[in-house]
Amino acid sequence: MQADHLDGNALAGPLAEIFTADVSAAVSRCASCGLTGPVASLRVYDRAPGLVARCPGCEEVVLRLVRSPDAAWLDLRGAVSLRIPLSGTNPSAVLSDEGGRSGAER
Amino acid sequence: MTTFTRGFRGRRRGEDDRLPPGQYLTEDFPVLSAGPTPHVPLDRWEFTIDTEAGQVHRWTWQELTALPYEEPAVDIHCVTSWSKLGTSWRGVSLDVLFEDVETTADYALVHSYGGYTTNLPLDDLLDGKAWIAYRYEGEELAASHGGPARLLVPHLYFWKSAKWVRGIRLLTEDWPGFWETAGYHNYGDPWREQRYADD
Amino acid sequence: MTRWRAARLVKVRDENPTARTLVFDVPGWPGHLAGQHVDVKLTAEDGYSARRSYSLAGTEGVELTVQRVPDGEVSPYLTLDMEPGDELELRGPVGGWFVWRPDGPAPVLLVAGGAGIVPLMAMIRARRAAGADTPFRLVYAVRSPERLCYADELLRPDPGVSVTLAYTRRAPEGHPRPPGRLTAADLGPYGEADCYVCGPTGFVEAAAALLVGLGHDPARIRTERFGPTGD
């Protein structure tokens, strides 16, 4: 069965509730096999009590996110690191409610 | 402040006194999964109980399915808020499997093919409250629903009923499982609506 | 941080018998990039709520195109029952990976399966709105003619954009390509390109594998799956 997961793109909304930067565009390194790639390319299982993002190389859990009514639980044990692009014109700028995106992006 | 959407009802409906608080009835059987579906050949399948003293009790598929079984008809309650009433199963009561197990442990950590874990007090597995189930509604349990065999503990939220069950480790100290370490309640009684760690 | 905002439906437009475009008024909408999506939340009067993600179809404001999934929970409501004036909640825009920017110099290959056309249409529209001359090629796999979205807009000549329709079950009379699943021949040859693939999970797996087989760099293939049902 391979028709049971989404891409890491699906994490963008839930993570945007926590972070100002767009974590789905960040590059993560899998703690299990070392595969490095965008969070957007992880395999996300969303038909579950929470979101479970797995490495596309080894299928180990990289990230888990559970949202209760009054808290978010985030487990990043499976990621050695996240490289989050940050600059004046990076895509995360458009994700903040305050705007700040450059006009050239439209 | 919530905005209500006029005319939206959603698929899940129903009032029923068999429904715990905050639950909605469903007629279908949603497939929930935190990872890819493991496929375990029956000739390599096994179920184990490991005691705190290091003793291992082991059953092959043939041995498990040769044991006396029960056919519980139970209501199941998923923490994602659906409940399904009157589901029928066939499985071996944990009381049968624990007959020859010597233990003074208070806690059980259930583990599955594929790496999933969930924890519960040993008492919640005994006295007719839990089964290793391998048939559902008269048919082999589908892999998408946890086949070849899953734990069935219907008095707790359904994430405790581990799919693709592989074994139980008996522990003298509690060891939280997959969802229990990620914000979900350690015990998960639907009638007390113990969904999240803070509930 | 991104919060839920109330969104009021102002206009609907049927794209075909099973897909509808919904235009929402969202005060304070900050604008978005082509390819981004929103999460929507519908709450029933009894408090029951359901969430889904939908791609933004337009370049301005919040315009979503929703394919009705039989037995779906949310899409039948959005495509049949929701009327102008009704409200839902949405969060976004989100997703900074599956996006195209008009200043991107590389040629673009878009591969859509069914309702996966939506974010790719947003990219074509963004290209047109920006007056960009980046070469675009769209390969749009769709079950049958009555499942086509944006048919008039896609068949109208758009310099620099080539469109290939691949009908998978039934083609209109006279269509040069016999109906059938997407093949490597539908996708190639095309030089080095930024590839965007969107569709149901199985379609995306197959199309991405075809692209790799044609020599496209896996690092330049961006995918967006919308799950087994897409509801």
Summarize this structure as a short list of keywords or feature phrases.
heterotrimer; A: 106 residues; mainly beta; three-stranded antiparallel sheet; globular; disordered C terminus; C: 231 residues; alpha/beta; Elongation Factor Tu (Ef-tu), domain 3; Rossmann fold; six-stranded antiparallel sheet; five-stranded parallel sheet; 34% strand
Compact description:
Chain A: It holds the Pfam family DUF6510. Chain A: Residues 85-106 are annotated as: Disordered. Chain B is mainly β.
Low-confidence stretches of chain C: none
Task: Compute the separation of the termini of chain A in Å.
Answer: 39 Å
Distance between the termini of chain C: 26 Å
Structure annotation, total helices of chain C:
5
Average pLDDT rating of chain C: 94
Which strand order spans the largest sheet of chain C, edge to edge or round the barrel?
4-3-6-1-2-5
Integer-rounded radius of gyration of chain A:
14 Å
Domain Oxidoreductase molybdopterin-binding (chain B): 35-179
Region (Disordered) (chain B): 1-23
InterPro entries (chain B): OxRdtase_Mopterin-bd_dom, OxRdtase_Mopterin-bd_sf
Protein name (chain B): Molybdopterin-binding protein
Please write out the topology.
The complex is a heterotrimer of chains A (106), B (199) and C (231).
Chain A: E1 6-7, H1 12-16, E2 27-30, E3 36-38, E4 43-45, E5 51-54, E6 61-68, E7 71-75, E8 79-83
Antiparallel strand pairs in A: 1-4, 2-3, 2-8, 4-5, 5-6, 6-7
Chain B: E1 24-25, E2 46-50, E3 56-60, H1 61-66, E4 73-77, E5 82-93, H2 94-97, E6 107-112, E7 117-121, E8 131-136, E9 139-140, E10 150-152, E11 165-171
Parallel strand pairs in B: 1-5, 2-11
Antiparallel strand pairs in B: 2-3, 4-5, 5-8, 6-7, 6-11, 8-9, 8-10
Chain C: E1 5-16, E2 19-25, E3 37-43, E4 49-55, E5 62-67, H1 75-81, E6 87-94, E7 108-113, H2 117-130, E8 136-142, H3 151-155, E9 161-167, H4 184-187, E10 194-199, H5 201-213, E11 221-225
Parallel strand pairs in C: 7-8, 7-10, 8-9, 10-11
Antiparallel strand pairs in C: 1-2, 1-6, 2-5, 3-4, 3-6
Please describe what this structure looks like.
The complex is a heterotrimer of chains A (106), B (199) and C (231). Chain A has 106 residues and is mainly beta. Chain A is built from one helix and eight strands, in the order βαβββββββ. Chain A has one helix at 12-16; strands at 6-7, 27-30, 36-38, 43-45, 51-54, 61-68, 71-75, 79-83. A five-stranded antiparallel β-sheet of chain A has the order 1-4-5-6-7, with no helix packed on it. Chain A has a three-stranded antiparallel β-sheet with strand order 3-2-8, with no helix packed on it. The longest helix of chain A is centred in the N-terminal third of the chain and has 5 residues, at 12-16. The model of chain A is unreliable at 92-106 (pLDDT under 50). With 199 residues, chain B is mainly beta. Chain B has two helices and eleven strands. In chain B, strand 8 (131-136) and strand 9 (139-140) form a beta hairpin. The longest helix of chain B is centred in the first third of the chain and has 6 residues, at 61-66. Chain C has 231 residues and is of the alpha/beta class. Chain C has helices spanning 75-81, 117-130, 151-155, 184-187, 201-213; strands spanning 5-16, 19-25, 37-43, 49-55, 62-67, 87-94, 108-113, 136-142, 161-167, 194-199, 221-225. In chain C, 45% of the residues are buried.
